[in-house]
Specification:
By secondary structure, this protein is α/β, with parallel strands linked by helices. It has two domains: about 140 residues, Rossmann fold; about 70 residues, Orthogonal Bundle (Arc Repressor Mutant, subunit A), CATH 1.10.10.10. The chain is built from eleven helices and six strands. A six-stranded parallel sheet has the order 2-1-3-4-5-6, with helices on both faces. α6 packs across α11. The relative contact order is 0.12.
């Protein structure tokens, strides 16, 4: 099972997300919170594999709560629920180690794929969010031709690995697709992060999107 904490101050949103997650028999919502401070406390007590947080919440916003969760319970992956009206929050979160961004109005299948990817240690950006994050990246990440110039420094195998990171695949899934052991995938990722000058999978995934590397036929693949 994949235990999940769900935090959103709107009860109807929580009910809808919970109903979608319930369609996957391997995902279980073990706790719910209506504000960021409660989310942090519930993560500390329940230790879920994934914390799914709304960005705008009372008492403590989702980004601040997510940063605290990452510090206090690093084994819990944090995925942000966002809307297109929260651009400033998305930009601020790029460097905070969040495992993904999901659009509240997006395809329900993306919600399942995002939770599963985060649980497996991968990063996941729903395609619509990825495009918006790329537009917002500014000086933090390369854009357009600059992104393609940066990936030119990668080996062919590193580009293959980066493309699958952008598609939201875990290290294990990348290994299966490329016939590599998981330890080798981790070594490639370490090299990719250094060569691209990024700190985490989300930043690497954004560059993969902007450089046109991400194969749409494997998005969210297990």
């Amino acid at each position: 099972m994949i235990p999940v904490l769900l935090a959103d101050d709107e009860m109807m949103i929580r009910a809808g997300v919970r109903a979608i997650l319930a369609t996957d028999p391997e995902i279980e919502v073990v706790a719910e919170a209506a504000d960021g401070r409660a989310a942090v406390e519930l993560v500390r007590s329940h230790r879920p594999r994934v914390a799914l947080l709304d960005i705008r919440m009372p008492r403590l916003d989702g980004l601040t709560a997510g940063a605290q969760i990452r510090r206090l319970v690093p084994e819990t992956a944090v995925v942000m629920l966002t809307t297109f009206g929260e651009d400033d929050y998305i930009a601020r979160a790029l460097g905070d180690g969040m495992a993904g961004f999901l659009l509240k109005s997006g395809d329900p299948r993306e919600l399942i794929a995002g939770v599963r990817a985060a649980a497996d240690g991968a990063a996941y950006l729903s395609p619509q969010v990825a495009r918006r994050v790329i537009e917002l990246g500014g000086g933090l990440l390369a854009r357009g031709p600059a992104a393609r110039e940066r990936i030119a420094a990668l080996t062919e195998r590193e580009r293959e690995v980066l493309a699958l990171v952008g598609a939201g695949l875990s290290n294990a899934a990348i290994g299966r697709r490329l016939f590599l052991v998981e330890g080798t995938v981790k070594s490639y990722l370490s090299s990719i992060f250094v060569r691209l000058g990024v700190r985490n999978r989300v930043q690497a995934a954004i560059i993969a999107y902007e450089a046109g590397l991400v194969p749409e036929d494997v998005l969210g693949e297990e």
